[in-house]
Structures are given as structure tokens and as C-alpha cells.
Design brief:
Number of strands: 29
Number of helices: 17
Distance between the termini: 30 Å
Largest sheet: 9 strands, mixed
Length: 550
């Protein structure tokens, strides 16, 4: 590209041109008007060139991100201390995973965000932590003993064994194209011994503890309908063929709540324009029945008008999407899929999956079901105990109906990692752009050189910050390498103690996403870090400085 000057009616005009070979000829094309002066033209040319470079870097980065596979993500998680295969020194134990030092920090931050959004900030939700083991009659009453199973199959062609859902029977084939041979039903619950002559099951869901404790919680908390009971905890499913890293594991964490409503109450008093006007990418049942996957944009209000769900169902679906948005997930990558009638769980009259578009495919990360009065009614029959609640509005005892929002915490964990994973072409390393509130490490402290004065001050700063934030100290290797290591694990800022720090008690703070730096007073560090975690721009808190290493 080059600048050319043209005279038109005695006046100078500058244009941007580009010459390209087309066949045997060189063809020159005018790309843009640059202005009336050479200075103005050169300034605009510089902007165009820089913009083009940024665009190329972004495209290359997106290509890298799209190339991320489930195996690549598992490898990254192991390499950086996020997730390890359980029992790896014995060759691993299929379907079980251990969170490493960084992984557990991110995982706990997600759970904390969930609890804060759905429990602490909601007047009508309270939390519990129920036991993993329960009386075996609970699972008989809930229907899990009879209905919680998959179809065990073997491919007639390649002889590979696996499982399919009941609704997939006769509809799906093996990856090799072969037909499946049905070997029988396979119950997904882990059976375990209790004491000498008793047994139970590891819970396959957290829901039942909230149903069996419902009356006790209502009485002791003095909650009136409508209200919800929430918990986050471990669940276990004896998958025939665990696969796809944390997606199809035998041990996993669910965050869910049961929201109890008067059976005759159809109106939701909490539904407001923010919920009604929430837009979502929707895959309806009719489209799926035609064998298609076309998404349409729809609002919660439109879904209510089409009678796809009730008002309370719509309210909590909107709240789920609002939480995902608060996490920083790209809402364009989230879709809501309506369940077909033949795939509904035994307890549900209407269910919607919330799927996230990972680089390796669209997969479920959450769901929401209308469980009706099924569970409470079943437990009343099996236990012979009353689980009715007195409703002050009607003066009658009622069995509430239930809306159940459910979240797969590991799947959300991976969605956040995939979205944050960014290969920076200019830096030639991964930058994990996690939201500040969720990032495992908030700041890293670096003495620019490993000398007594620098190390002493850096250690002092580190110790003071450690009282309030999860921070990391690193004095090993070049400062550039230390920046890279911090970027790769999502550390949101780097604090460098340099020569000037020893003179005037200031340090540089480096922004992870841009690699730009500012200089601030040491006494202001805690306040600045707190504000950045809350979403403020780090670069606005000090004077920008140019450094040799970024």
C-alpha cells in the first residue's frame, strides 16, 4: 500500500492505493481517501496499517481458539495445575478427576458466585447441605431405582460397547455407521454397603435431600410459599462409558434448587420487563421433530405467549441466563433447547437444556425442569409422612409444585476456560482472560531483579496483599518469562518492584489483557486491586509507563 497525490481543480488530494498482480498484469486499485495534506494522509495510513495488523492477529488468535480440542483442554488443565486425572500414578481411574491448586480456586469462585447470586441475594431462597448417602427408600420413591438407567449397547459392526439414552433407541448409530445391539438396561446409581447388613446409593442428584427435608426447613425457617431450597454438592452416576474430560464423569458437582409454589398459583410476582424481554437463542421441539437444528431468537415473553412454559418457569430461566451473563460468558454461544416429549425425565412435564457452544461442540451446561408435585407426592406415599404445608393465603394445607433450575458446575468451569483461552500471536503464549472476580490468582508480585533490597520490599508487599487477596510471589527467571507464566494461568495483574520503587515507594502494575503498565503508590495497591476485581479498568488508576518488557 502506498500514498498517491492527485490534483483536482488545482487542489491536492491524497489517496491510498494498492498494486496487485492479476494474471500477467499488475493492477492498481484506490482503497481509501486519506485527506488534503501529506501529514494527514500519513497519519491515516498508519491507523489503517495498525488496524489491519490487529485484525490479522485477532483472526490468527480465533483460529488457535477454534483448534482447541477436548484433549487439548485436558492437557492444558493438567500442565497448568487446574485438573488432573485421579489416581494417575496407577494409570488413572476412568470418570474421576482431581482439581489442582489453580483449578480448585476457580471452581470455588464459580460456586461462590452461584451461591451469592441465587441464595444470598434472593429473599426467597435458603440453602442446605444434605448428606450424600440417604435411606434407600428415597430412591425407590423418587423413581430412580426403576427408571434411572441407560441402554447398554454394542455395535454390530465394530463391536464397541457403550450406552444410549432410552429416547435414542432405534434413532442413532455408532460412529462407524454400524447398528446397535441392545444388551439391556444399566442402572446408573452406585450401590454401596452401609454397616454390616444394609445398603444405600451414592446420590445421583442433589434434589432428593431438598424434598425430604422440605417440611423441616419450611417449619424451622418460617418460610411461606413461594420459596426455594438450594444446595451445591457432589453427585455420582455409574456411567458405562465416561468420556469428554469433565463432561461425562462418574463424580461431578451440581448446583440446583427446588422452588416450591402453591399448586394453584400461576402468576409470578417477580417477573418484570427485564425477564420478559430477555432474548435467547432457542431450539424448539417442532424444529427438532423435523430433524433440523435451526435456532431462532425469542424472548421469555414470547415463550409464555406460546405456552411453552409457565410464568415461574420463565422467571427462573431468565435468572439462569442473567447469572451466565454476570459470569462474562458470551451469550451468543448459549442456546436453550426444548425437550421433546419422549426424552422428558420421569418426573418432568417440561424441561429446557441450556447449552454452550464449546470449540469442540455444543454441550449442556444447565437445565430447568417443571417437576410438578411428583417428588413430594411420591415421598408422602412411601414414607407415610405428611409433607403438606399450610398456606396462609387460602387457609388450606397444600402440596407445592416445583420448578427446578440445575447447573453442572464442572461444565461451567470448562466453558469459562474455553472462553478465556486466548493464544496471543504477538506475545507467543496463552493468555487466560478469566473475569477478574473468578480468576484464581488476583495479582502476582515480582522483584525485577533478585537482589536484597528488591526482594525485601517485594516480600513485604506480598505479605500485606496476601491478607486480603489470593496473590502469588515469583522471583524466578526473567521478568518477561514471569509475566508470561502469570498470563497463562489468568493472573489479572502483575506488580513489579523496580529501581524507582526503592526511591519513591511506587510500583508498576501490569494489565494482563493488554500488557500495558501504570505506576502507582504502594499504599494504594489494596484499594486498586479491590476495584479491578469489581470490574474497574486497571489502567485508569495511574500514569501509563513504557517499559522495555511488556
Amino acid at each position: 500500500m502506498y500514498i498517491v497525490k492527485k490534483k483536482i481543480k488545482g487542489r491536492d488530494y491524497f489517496y491510498l492505493r494498492e498494486s496487485k498482480r492479476e494474471g500477467e498484469k499488475v493492477v492498481a486499485k484506490t482503497l481509501a481517501y486519506l485527506g488534503r495534506t501529506r501529514e494527514e494522509a500519513e497519519k491515516k495510513l498508519k491507523q489503517i496499517v495498525e488496524g489491519k495488523k490487529k485484525s490479522e492477529v485477532k483472526k490468527k488468535s480465533e483460529v488457535k481458539k477454534k483448534q482447541l480440542t477436548i484433549e487439548g483442554l485436558a492437557s492444558f488443565c493438567k500442565r497448568k495445575g487446574f485438573v488432573f486425572q485421579n489416581s494417575s500414578i496407577y494409570g488413572g481411574f476412568s470418570g474421576f478427576w482431581d482439581f489442582g491448586p489453580l483449578g480448585i480456586e476457580l471452581f470455588n469462585n464459580i460456586k461462590e458466585s452461584w451461591w451469592d447470586f441465587f441464595v444470598r441475594k434472593k429473599e426467597n431462597i435458603i440453602g442446605i447441605d444434605a448428606s450424600i448417602l440417604s435411606h434407600p427408600k428415597i430412591w425407590k420413591a423418587s423413581g430412580h431405582e426403576e427408571s434411572f438407567s441407560d441402554i447398554f449397547v454394542r455395535c454390530k459392526k465394530c463391536k464397541k460397547s457403550g450406552k444410549i439414552d432410552k429416547n435414542e433407541l432405534g434413532k442413532v448409530k455408532c460412529d462407524c455407521g454400524g447398528e446397535y445391539e441392545v444388551l439391556g438396561d444399566f442402572n446408573l446409581m452406585f450401590k454401596t454397603s452401609v454397616g454390616i447388613d444394609s445398603f444405600s446409593y451414592l446420590r445421583p442428584e442433589t434434589a432428593q435431600g431438598m424434598f425430604t427435608d422440605f417440611k423441616l426447613i419450611a417449619d424451622t425457617s418460617r418460610k411461606k410459599l413461594p420459596f426455594g431450597i438450594a444446595q451445591v454438592g457432589k453427585c455420582f452416576r455409574n456411567e458405562i462409558a465416561p468420556r469428554d474430560f469433565l463432561f461425562r464423569a462418574r463424580e461431578f458437582t451440581i448446583g440446583e434448587f427446588e422452588f416450591f409454589i402453591h399448586p394453584g398459583e400461576k402468576k409470578c410476582s417477580l417477573l418484570d420487563p427485564r425477564h420478559l424481554n430477555s432474548k435467547l437463542n432457542f431450539l424448539d421441539a417442532e424444529t427438532q421433530e423435523k430433524g433440523k437444528k435451526n435456532l431462532k431468537e425469542i424472548t421469555i415473553k414470547k415463550m409464555l405467549q406460546e405456552k411453552r412454559l409457565g410464568e415461574w418457569h420463565g422467571y427462573w430461566l431468565a435468572e439462569q441466563l442473567l447469572w451466565f451473563k454476570s459470569l462474562g460468558l458470551d451469550m451468543n454461544k448459549i442456546k436453550v433447547r426444548e425437550h421433546l416429549k419422549d426424552e422428558l425425565s420421569h418426573y418432568s412435564s417440561a424441561t429446557f437444556d441450556i447449552d454452550y457452544e464449546y470449540p469442540f461442540g455444543s454441550k449442556e451446561i444447565a437445565g430447568i425442569a417443571d417437576r410438578g408435585q411428583y417428588d413430594l407426592t411420591q415421598h408422602i406415599k412411601e414414607s407415610k409422612e405428611s409433607l403438606e404445608i399450610f398456606d396462609e393465603k387460602t387457609g388450606k394445607k397444600v402440596i407445592p409444585r416445583v420448578i427446578e433450575p440445575t447447573f453442572g458446575i464442572e461444565r461451567i468451569f470448562l466453558a469459562l476456560l474455553c472462553q478465556a483461552y486466548d493464544y496471543d500471536i504477538e506475545r507467543e503464549n496463552i493468555v487466560l482472560k478469566l473475569p477478574p472476580k473468578l480468576a484464581p490468582i488476583k495479582a502476582a508480585v515480582f522483584p525485577i531483579v533478585k537482589k536484597a533490597g528488591f526482594v525485601k520490599l517485594a516480600r513485604k508487599i506480598y505479605s500485606e496483599l496476601k491478607e486480603e487477596f489470593n496473590v502469588f510471589y515469583d522471583e524466578s527467571g526473567s521478568i518477561g518469562r514471569r509475566y508470561s507464566r502469570a498470563d497463562e494461568v489468568g493472573t489479572i495483574m502483575g506488580i513489579t518492584i523496580d529501581g524507582q520503587s526503592l526511591k519513591d515507594k511506587t510500583v508498576t502494575m501490569r494489565d494482563r489483557d493488554t500488557s500495558k503498565q501504570i505506576r502507582v503508590k504502594i499504599k494504594d495497591l489494596k484499594e486498586i486491586i479491590g476495584k479491578v476485581i469489581d470490574g474497574k479498568d486497571l489502567l485508569k488508576f495511574g500514569k501509563k509507563v513504557d517499559t522495555r518488557v511488556r
